[in-house]
Write a structure and sequence with these properties.
The chain is of the alpha+beta class and 145 residues long. It folds into 2 domains: 79 residues, no CATH class; 55 residues, no CATH class. The chain has 3 helices and 7 strands. The strands form 2 sheets. It has a 5-stranded antiparallel sheet. The longest helix has 22 residues. The chain is elongated. The two termini are 21 Å apart. The protein binds zinc ion. Zinc ion binds next to helix 3.
Length: 145
């Protein structure tokens, strides 16, 4: 069984934790911004996109971090059996595509769609066509991790 892990977000305003199942960010637990003092101070949301339909995502609130984490874990125990490896892979590919595209822009590389012949050169030096997904998902797998 894969254990859930968490990483603190870079948001300094409100304490927020990103929750990971292996390398897939499946949700968050964080302080609810602007919640009245009489209300639950912690919120959680479970779901990732693409890969999970928005209607299957879950969320809730709790008075403490530990209670929010327990509620999140209970929800995950219900949701995880409904997911397939392909669902996680869709999310990983989307993550890697966006990270690759940002790197292309940062390195000043043109996208194949920006050239009239439909070809360009990846920042790694490889010539790439418009349909360059295979290149991204093999050569640069995990670039966004
Ligand atoms: Zn490349």
């Amino acid at each position: 069984m894969t254990v859930l892990t968490r990483r603190r977000s870079e948001n300094d305003q409100h304490e927020t934790w990103h929750i990971y199942f292996a390398d897939v960010r499946i949700g968050t637990i964080g302080i609810r911004a602007g919640a009245p003092i009489s209300a639950d101070q912690w919120g959680w949301s479970l779901g990732f996109y693409p890969g999970m339909e928005p209607s299957t995502q879950r969320s809730g609130s709790a008075p403490t971090f530990d209670q929010a984490r327990a509620a999140f874990e209970r929800a995950w125990q219900q949701v995880e059996p409904t997911l397939r490896e392909d669902d996680f892979e869709v999310w990983r590919r989307d993550r890697d595509f966006h990270a690759w595209k940002c790197r292309m822009q940062a390195e000043g590389c043109r996208m194949p769609t920006q050239n009239s012949n439909g070809w360009s050169r990846c920042f790694c030096g490889e010539p790439i066509p418009i349909a360059c997904e295979v290149h991204i998902y093999t050569v640069h797998r995990g670039i966004g991790a």
